[in-house]
């Protein structure tokens, strides 16, 4: 059955799951949720998903938070930076709360949606788009919805081809010749295909609501979309289709993948095409003065953002907002997050320096074959370490 189209702003609600702790990012997520981690000098990871929503014509967005939400809440605010503060647009921050049955914390992706059924009902969408807030990519969700409707699907899963040797790390979708999903394997030892789930789903809200409400009284709740809901849909004979995505997509859930994505971001011809005015990436940016390069500064193939003071040598690196690098210091193949201060005669290579970190004079942040990490507001070297 093909559903009639209504205005994009009212037919599909986006729900961004942004409560992840991101433990594999170690020190970088000790104080903030993974979607709030800075990326690319002037962005935070969640900016890419939010901007995709706006560019796709989606004007109603719920952001589901849980772990360390303060920085994320402050960043999103009322959604004005993304144009989500209008009469017919809005972003709503959704926190865990104690319900009548005593539940509070979200126990999985599907459980997070279940706890927010009242909000979704209030928005009254025909379709619900489930998104992760911790991936770097550009994607037109409207094109995915059009295919969902054309297929008469109950559920459409965004998938991307991965090398077959890496497929065992993902939830793998096995499809027929029409891309209808016939089998789902969660991290299979011997994958039958290389179509990996991106954690992007479009559901018909009526059917998803019925499934979630029906499972709430079962002993085995449908807590997770990948582990529980998709298999449940397949077992019930629902039409479940794969939507193939062919662009740049990066799950920056590990230190190595975050560093790799950052190094790719520096490249002028990177696949994200950040200078493409037809698909802009929006963010809440601090008002800072222009960056300043002293007579001792040397900068090559790097991104230097507003508010930076540079008196040292910068090579193939990203200096985020309000970073300071004093004379005699070298930053190479590294990411320096907002507000970090680097003293004199410091050597930083293959590293990620967290927000507001302080690197004292003469410190060395480098280890061969390893990405070194300095955490949020961490102090390294200088007088601060004399008694340690």
Task: Describe the secondary structure blueprint for this structure.
Elements: H1 8-11, E1 12-17, E2 38-39, E3 43-44, H2 46-55, E4 60-64, H3 70-76, E5 90-94, H4 109-114, H5 117-123, E6 127-132, E7 135-137, H6 141-150, E8 155-161, E9 171-175, E10 181-186, E11 195-204, H7 205-215, H8 225-235, E12 240-244, E13 249-251, H9 255-266, E14 292-293, E15 298-300, E16 303-304, E17 309-310, E18 313-315, E19 318-319, E20 324-325, E21 330-332, E22 335-336, E23 341-342, E24 347-349, E25 351-353, E26 358-359, E27 364-365, E28 372-374, E29 379-380
Parallel strand pairs: 1-4, 1-6, 4-5, 8-12, 14-17, 15-18, 16-19, 17-20, 18-21, 19-22, 20-23, 21-24, 22-25, 23-26, 24-27, 25-28, 26-29
Antiparallel strand pairs: 2-3, 6-11, 7-13, 8-11, 9-10
Please explain how this structure is put together:
It is globular, with a radius of gyration of 22 Å. The protein is α/β, with parallel strands linked by helices and 388 residues long. The protein is built from nine helices and 29 strands. It is 20% helix and 27% strand. The N and C termini lie far apart (69 Å). Residues 1-9 and 384-388 have low confidence and may be disordered. The strands form seven sheets. It has a seven-stranded mixed sheet. It has helices spanning 8-11, 46-55, 70-76, 109-114, 117-123, 141-150, 205-215, 225-235, 255-266, and strands at residues 12-17, 38-39, 43-44, 60-64, 90-94, 127-132, 135-137, 155-161, 171-175, 181-186, 195-204, 240-244, 249-251, 292-293, 298-300, 303-304, 309-310, 313-315, 318-319, 324-325, 330-332, 335-336, 341-342, 347-349, 351-353, 358-359, 364-365, 372-374, 379-380. It has two domains: 10-265, Spore Coat Polysaccharide Biosynthesis Protein SpsA, Chain A; 292-380, Hexapeptide repeat proteins (UDP N-Acetylglucosamine Acyltransferase, domain 1).
